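hey m, so remember when u said the tokens were messed up on ur end? i reran from scratch. heres the input so u can diff it against urs
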Amino acid sequence: MYAVVESGGKQYRVEEGTVLVVDRLKAEEGDKVALKPVMFKGDDVVVDAKGLEKVKIEAKVTEHLRGDKIKVFKYKPKKGYSRRAGHRAELTKLEVTKLGAGAKKKAAPKKAEEKAADKKEDTDGA
């Protein structure tokens, strides 16, 4: 059983227990976050919007970290132009704790009073 989830405009394939690094989320360490499913494969494959509403994917924020430094250097020859800059991505490490589709809900059995009221309505209309 696995799912494809979306976070920060990127998609990740996850299973229960998967650790993934995504763009920084607004959550504290130890918090549980819900991830948006794009596809779910269990007994059958679910990709439609109505089916995905029932799929629940929960992850725990294990830590916040920063990525490697990326050096940016712009240069134009013979013009005296050069610029240096750097960038470090803000990241969040998640561990997927729950992965599952919601069970199909069955209609609750009617009580005797409701059944009697339904029969009365049927006979009144005829």
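this time it looks ok to me. The first strand starts at residue 2 and ends at 7. if urs says something different then somethings off w ur setup not the seq
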